[in-house]
Write a structure and sequence with these properties.
single chain, 285 residues, D-Maltodextrin-Binding Protein, domain 2, 12 helices, 35% helix, 19% strand, ABC-type phosphate transport system periplasmic component-like protein, PBP_domain, Phosphate_ABC_transporter
Length: 285
């Protein structure tokens, strides 16, 4: 499956956002429709990169039940970009990977969770060992860290403001300091988007990166999750309360909520089935 290419200029969310997004989205989207007929109505959404393949699958299933409606998914926006585009009227709904900021709350947006997925540490290394949280912090901190066969560890970071960075920083009391020190090392890559992160993690030998379970599963990435404190990140362990690290995804919409029918479908038994198959647990608002 090929997603639409990133929209130029959108990540920076500059003053030209309205014109860039509205014009570029016409040529840089993938369309989810039932059959080949032209849809009579279109809903446009976007958001966190970790959920874009999931959103595509949900859109396909929704359109199959509603042949007159198509879902267009704008990629490359991220949570903040999608919420800005929603406020500007360029999107009908956004999928967020974090809570709304105070300034976003002031925009009178509807905001509700719809699923949660395990969050963890992945690697391209074939047989990684597990770590306790403190040991994992040391593993990140040591520039000479190696996997059991001697393969050098290649850390991949995310931007400071990214929700992955915030979650990783809370893994242990020292991790935030360790991440700050890692940013001073010029050789360590910083993946701007979830898709960049996935490609780097899968292609770099001995990689060490953060990721959601749903992205790794949905994009069929050749990566392994590390056990943390003896527990494997999985939907089953998350549901049983054995694994605690998770990311939640939220629907964000305006007061007019043109996406109400689609959001209701996601919460239906068929939508919940798709969520689970993609490595998520449904969450009721």
């Amino acid at each position: 499956m090929q997603l639409g290419r990133n929209l130029p200029g959108v990540r920076s969310m500059n003053k030209a956002l309205r014109s860039i997004l509205v014009l570029a989205s016409l040529s840089s989207l993938f369309h989810v429709t039932a059959g080949n007929a032209v849809a009579a109505s279109t809903l446009r959404g976007g958001g966190t990169g970790a959920a874009m393949v999931l959103l595509n699958r949900l859109g396909e299933a929704f359109s199959a039940q509603n042949p007159g409606v198509s879902i267009e998914v704008v990629v490359g926006l991220g949570t903040s970009g999608a919420i800005e585009a929603l406020v500007d009227g360029a999107l009908d709904f956004a999928v967020a990977a974090r809570s709304l900021t105070p300034s976003e709350q002031a925009k009178s947006l509807a905001f509700a969770p719809f699923c949660r997925t395990p969050f963890g540490i992945v690697t391209s290394y074939a047989t990684p060992s597990g770590f306790g949280r403190l040991d994992l912090t040391d593993f990140y901190a040591d520039p000479t860290s190696r996997w059991p066969d001697g393969t050098a560890v290649k850390v991949i970071l995310r931007p400071r403001s990214d929700s992955d960075t915030m979650m990783l920083a809370k893994l242990s009391p020292r991790m935030a300091e360790v991440l700050d020190n890692l940013r001073k090392r010029a050789e360590i890559p910083i993946a701007a988007t979830d898709q960049d992160n996935g490609k780097l993690a899968a292609s770099l030998q001995g990689s060490l990166a953060t990721m959601t379970y749903t992205q790794a599963l949905s994009e069929n990435l050749d990566l392994r999750f590390l056990e943390i404190d003896g527990i494997v990140p999985s939907v089953e362990n998350l549901e049983r309360g054995r694994y605690s690290l998770e990311r939640r995804f939220y629907f964000v919409s305006r007061a007019d909520n043109r996406a109400e029918a689609f959001i209701a479908f996601v919460r239906s038994p068929e939508g919940e089935k798709i969520l689970r198959e993609a490595g998520n647990l449904p969450v009721m608002p």
